[in-house]
Amino acid sequence: MDFNELFIRLKKRFPDAGYSNPRDPFSVLISTIISQRTRDEQTHVAAQALLSAYPTARNLATAEIKDIEKLIKSAGFYHVKARKVREVSRIILKEYNGSIPDDYESLIRLPSVGQKTANCVLVFGFGKEAIPVDTHVHRISNRLGIIDTKTPEESEQALRKILPEKYWLDINHLFVQFGRNICRPIGPRCAKCPVFDLCSWEGRFK
Ligand code: SF4
Fold first, then answer.
1. Which residues, judged by CB distance below 6 Å to any ligand atom, belong to the binding site of ligand 1?
2. Distance between CA atoms of 184 and 166, rounded to whole angstroms?
3. Rounded to the nearest 10 degrees, how much is the dihedral formed by the CA atoms of 180, 182, 187, 190?
4. How far apart are CA 114 and CA 112, in angstroms?
5. Staple partner for 169: which of 15, 19, 98, 186, CB 3.0–4.6 Å?
6. What share of the chain is helix, strand, coil (3-state, %, to 5)?
7. What is the value of pTM for the model shown?
8. 105 to 56, 113, 115, 141: CA distances (angstroms)
9. Which residue stretches of 36-132 are H helix?
């Protein structure tokens, strides 16, 4: 795969989708936990409401569960998620004095934090090179023929080996935009694809 060509073309099509400055790591962490098994729009509304009311781990650690639930009700599984975000806030307060750790090993030890969430915090919260693999990154990387994997976890490992580090910060945002608008899970718009000739997916001619 010619990564340079791939990223140039995707950035041209989605000029606002590349990586920008890091955001507050606590808000990245909490938003990513709320996003688990939930659509992006619902995640955004719920996370905004929660973080406006409780902007720090210290605030959220002492919040009432019923108050958290009320704020994140638009996200799915809000009973479970309310407990998760409070628990993780309490641990961050107790073990890290309220600051989010900036290394993978510490992040992955937190409850409700898996590979994707840890990598999201590293990239979007700290601007550190990592590869957050969600369903878009997993699907598109396989369709393009960059990797051949069965799960997002396998994809992360495979991409770490093959993708030059200079693309790590950009890949998630770019592929998410590309996946929502063109390389959709069902009914990909291959006829409008800017990287059609770079793709090895057999279904692209249908
Ligand atoms: Fe996705 Fe189709 Fe483009 Fe391949 S040609 S990357 S399957 S939209």
1. 143-144, 182-183, 188, 190, 193, 195-196, 199, 201, 204
2. 25
3. -160
4. 6
5. 19
6. 65, 0, 35
7. 0.85
8. 22, 11, 10, 25
9. 40-53, 57-61, 65-71, 78-96, 104-109, 115-120, 126
Ligand 1 centroid vs 171 CA: distance in angstroms? 16
- To test the pocket of ligand 1, the residue of 147, 177, 181, 183 to mutate (highest count of ligand atoms within 8 Å of its CB) is 183
C-alpha 124 – ligand 1 centre gap (Å): 26
Indicate the CATH number of 3-17+132-205 among 1.10.1670.10, 1.10.10.10, 3.40.1010.20, 3.30.565.10: 1.10.1670.10
Annotated domain spans of the chain: 3-17+132-205, 25-126
